[in-house]
Every structure is written in C-alpha cells, then in structure tokens.
Design a protein that fits this description.
Elements (H helix, E strand, L loop, with lengths): L25 E7 L5 E5 L6 E6 L9 E4 L12 E5 L8 E11 L1 E3 L2 E2 L2 E6 L16 H13 L8 E3 L5 H19 L6
Parallel strand pairs: 5-9
Antiparallel strand pairs: 1-4, 1-6, 2-3, 4-5, 6-9, 7-8, 7-10
C-alpha cells in the first residue's frame, strides 16, 4: 500500500515542472480566470492562493493570468503570464502555453514584465506564433487593462510596447536560469 502522507504539500511554483519544451512551450499555472475582478495571488510560503484584492476599477482580467513554474524574476516572483484562449479556467489549473510576446511593464517603479502566450492546445489560438499576428484591437485591450487596473488605487503602472516571440522566449530562459541559480542549490534533492 502506498504511503499517502507527506511531510509537506505540493507547491505549484517549485514542484510543478516547467516542461521539457521550455522556453518554446511551458506549463502555466492560472491564478486568475478571464473575466475576474478578483486579484488572486500565490502565497509563496504555502503554495495556496489568497485574495490580494478586488480590483478598484470597473475592469476585469481580459484573459487567464498566472505564472510560469520554476522561474524567478527581479521582483522575487515567478514570471507572470497572460494566456489567451477561448474560455476562463479554474484558478490553480495548469495548462501548456506557447509564448508569442512580452509586454514590458513598470509597476510602482519595479520591472514586472508579462509574457503574452496562447494556450498551446486551444484550436482557436494555438496557431499564433508572434504577438504581431494578433488583431491590433486585442493588443490595445490588453495594454489598456494593465495601464488602468490600478489607477483607482493611485498606483502608477507604465506599459511599454509589445515585443515579439523571440524576446519572450529569451525572457522565459532568463527567468528559468535565475530560478535555478537561486533555488536549486538550496533545495533538498
């Protein structure tokens, strides 16, 4: 009989593999479903979601939003990802994503770039390979959401122009390397 007792719970940031095809395709953990006004956040200590806040503005997340496991950025968080697909998904679901671009962003003076990806298995979105293939209006909606979603909290966010898939893959690779340098030597193997 298998031992079903563990000393600790599984942690989606550290225990879920990024996937063998990274940075071209990777696992993404969804924290916030498309259409949500609730800002869920990964609690780094427990691996559970907590409600960070309800958005102050009359906006909702335009697409599923989460993070890429086993990545680390300068803000000491995993790399953020916005995943374009047809439907909202349940928080803490994971799926295969393909990066098509990156949205450079400064959030309250701190670099906080967002990978823009498509669900690799969604028939409507999987054939997009670069951010420039998306309709201009969709890009404008995404940019506007991130420019506005903290305005009523009097928090400053600056969004730069979107960069393509090649830059996105390099951003993922850099975040994977930073994670390895900061976590793998310290973790029990």
């Amino acid at each position: 009989m298998a031992n079903h007792h563990r000393n600790s719970a599984s942690h989606p940031w550290h225990d879920l593999a990024i996937g063998g095809e990274a940075p071209h395709k990777f696992n993404a953990v969804i924290e916030i479903p498309k259409g949500s006004k609730v800002k869920y956040e990964l609690d780094k200590e427990t691996g559970m979601l907590y409600i960070d806040r309800v958005l102050y503005s009359s906006v909702v997340y335009p697409h599923n939003y989460g993070f890429i496991p086993q990545t680390l950025c300068d803000d000491n968080d995993p790399l953020d990802v916005l995943v374009l697909m047809q439907a909202p998904v349940v928080p803490m679901s994971f799926l295969r994503a393909k990066p098509i671009g990156v949205m450079p962003m400064i959030d309250q003076g701190e670099q906080d770039d967002k990978i823009i990806a498509v669900h690799a298995d969604d028939p409507e979105f999987r054939d997009y390979n670069d951010i420039n293939e998306l309709p201009k209006h969709r890009l404008a909606e995404i940019k506007r959401f991130f420019e506005d979603y903290k305005k009523n909290e009097n928090k400053e966010v600056k969004v730069d122009e979107f960069l393509g898939a090649e830059v996105a893959r390099k951003t993922v690779t850099d975040a994977m390397q930073m994670y390895d340098e900061n976590y793998l030597p310290k973790r029990k193997r």
